TrEMBL record, chain A:
Name of encoding gene: ccoP
Annotated InterPro entries: CcoP_N, CcoP_N_sf, Cyt_c-like_dom, Cyt_c-like_dom_sf, Cyt_C_IC, Cyt_c_oxidase_cbb3_su3, Cytochrome_c_Oxidase_Subunit
Pathway(s) served: Energy metabolism; oxidative phosphorylation
Superkingdom: Bacteria
Name used for this protein in its record: Cbb3-type cytochrome c oxidase subunit
Listed GO biological process terms: oxidative phosphorylation; proton transmembrane transport
Automatic annotation (TrEMBL), chain B:
Span of the signal peptide: none
Transmembrane segments: 47-65, 99-120, 172-191, 207-227, 357-375
Cited Gene3D superfamilies: Immunoglobulins
InterPro entries assigned to the protein according to its UniProt record, in alphabetical order: 4Fe4S_Fe-S-bd, 4Fe4S_Fe_S_CS, Cyt_c_oxidase_cbb3_FixG, Electron_Trans/Redox, FixG_C, Ig-like_fold
Organism phylogeny: Bacteria, Pseudomonadati, Pseudomonadota, Alphaproteobacteria, Sphingomonadales
Domain of life: Bacteria
Source organism: Flavisphingopyxis soli
Protein name per Swiss-Prot or TrEMBL: Cytochrome c oxidase accessory protein CcoG
One Gene Ontology term of the molecular function aspect: 4 iron, 4 sulfur cluster binding
GO cellular component entries: plasma membrane
Start and end residues of each 4Fe-4S ferredoxin-type domain: 271-298
Amino acid sequence: MTKRIDEPTGTETVGHEWDGIEELDTPMPRWWLWTFYASIAFAIGYVILYPALPGITGATKGTLGWSSRGQLAEEMQAEANRRAPMLEALSRIPIERLPEDSRLMRAAVEGGRSAFKVSCVQCHGSGASGRKGYPNLNDDDWLWGGDLKAIEYTLTNGVRQPGHEGTRMSQMPAFGRDGILDARAIADVVSYVRTVSGQDKASASARRGAAVFAANCAVCHGADAKGKREFGAPNLTDPIWLYGGDRATLTATVTNARYGVMPAWGNRLDPVTIKMLAAYVHSLGGGEDFIAVAADPEVKVDERP
Amino acid sequence: MNAPEQDVDTSRARGEITQHVLADKRSLYEKRKPVFPQAVDGFYRRLKWVIMAVTLAVYYVTPWLRWDRGAYAPDQAVLVDLAHRRFYMFAIEIWPHEFYYVAGLLVMAGIGLFLVTSVFGRAWCGYTCPQTVWTDLFQHIERFIDGDHNAQVRLEKAPWGPAKIARRLVKWSIWLMIAVATGGAWIFYFADAPSLARQFFAGEAPLVAYTTVAILTATTFILGGFLREQFCIYMCPWPRIQAAMMDERSALVTYKTWRGEPRGSVKQANKSPGVFGDCIDCLQCVNVCPTGIDIREGTQIGCITCALCIDACNNVMDQVGRPRGLIDYVTYEDAAREQKGEAPRSAWRNVLRPRTLLYFAGWGAIGVAMLFMLGTRSHLDISVLQDRNPAYVQLSDGSVRNNYTLKIRNMQTRPRRLEVTLSGIDNAVIWSDDGSREQASQRIVTTAPPDSVVRLRVFMAASGNGPAFEDFTFTVRALDEAGGSDSEKTRFERPEVAP
């Protein structure tokens, strides 16, 4: 420990030496000390104004009354205020006229995208592409109708909700389980369905199945097997299958029937959210145009493309 | 030029620091020693006036220059439009995705500083650094109010009375006005200057404008008026970095010890000729120094190479009839050569050497590359994002649909009609979310607003029979006379058929 004066700088060393390296004891500038005191003053002010000192049951509140929860609530309120006029406009416009206002339509689609993630992805998947028993909402095949108004109706009233007036209702008989058809007839009608959907070539079994179909199935699925939306009866001639188009699945479907359900969202969500959800689902690519049918011939028929 | 002043304040230059350090009871903190630089005239002082005038004019005037860009873009020549993420500089408009131009400019600024530093030493510090320019301005005002060096020292030592208070108030008010103008000018770079000025004085400008002005006013006032050389010595990292940029052939403000030492007055020199060097120890070099150092102690961190001591010493040398250049810009190598009595290298040989040429080549290459890219950049861009969830959709007629999000960037400041076409899959059709599959073709026509990115949702349907992955190209083409197009390759996906 030998303090000495460093010759070139004229400054005293601190006295330590590490392998010949010494450190100059250069004094700090005085103003640096002031900035240090100013920081202390600032810290004291901060402790008084803001929540700072932790205690057993919570921290001090601070005289400004600021809290991160309070700030979040304020920001959420500001956002709600910003959205209020848009939501108000959405609640007033009938959904079939939504495409006329492209700005409102975009807002509805975006709102629907968020709401979909909360309420719908559990069954329909995050990409709305569904899975066995849960329809793919991206395609152009609709059980109950794919225009904005039909989607909104399905969302509001649900599918096969017991006790809910207006719910989308239909019930396929369990042809095998209830003994309506025997195993051979079921095998034949499955052959027929696989033929009309282009999966199998015509066969003797399918020819027999055509008669079974006409007698038992055509009332809902149509004589041409293209389905009927008023019953939510799927089109059996296209390559889109809700439960599967292979022999085993078709046999299971005819034997035990299917009874897909969806909640009546009108009981759980507000009408604006449902409207936004309908707009979002419609926008996924398979949405159909709404064609208003005028009851009164004086009223001009809306034939927007 | 008056006779060199011998002044009370100069004692510190003669080893007072050493005595201070030797004292037993040293403080841990050192009070700033006030510096009262004396006025001086000469080549470098005039150069500094010119540079100060140019830099201050550029700073204050630039936001007020106008530049016509048509109806859809601001008419301010230089504008950093943070709200809309645009940077305008005369004919150039930079988008956020072109930030590499800014990065390139910063790299050029860095290499430029290396270049200048390796040739002229701390020229940035001495002439163009804002800290130097505003301090210089403030010191000039100080001399205007309080008088030159001696008067300032007297006033500093005088007790606080009406006269001193009045002078201080006048000086600080002028400083404050300049500080407000400095802070005020800054915000005009970020918004339309005339309308922001109107709002600012009407009290309608955004809070951030007032805060920015307040902060920059405070920093200008404090750093220029009071902290001055303390900023350079204690806060700024650049002097330390510069030490690594300089070498033995960089020009430094140098006191030629071999010529000046030993020091002696003219009287002493006349009495005993041949004993003394050229330095007459008049302390002019110390008095004019804005950072308060003695250049005769050699190169040091406090020397910002403003070269005012060169002017001061040259004036004195002229008076006593000795050759100029006792203090001068000299390189280490030349100093050694001069000491040995050899002629210094030519200035060009100090400037043109591998290191500087390399810096210049790098600097120039980046500049040329950026100019080339700026000249050839496309004003129409397309980027394609294929939907991943789901990757494809089976349609009821057996065909398959893929969805894409197209981002089309129109960088021109006018609306344009554009067409998007697909090529590579013959049977495919595309339609956007305001069209329908029934009317779909291989072409979509859309309108892009000026200076904006259009987000276009595109649905594409093609036959279900085909490979699982098929490449094709989206092309956007402008339908106006200026034309231009851009393409991006992407792919179409189908369900994989089980083997």
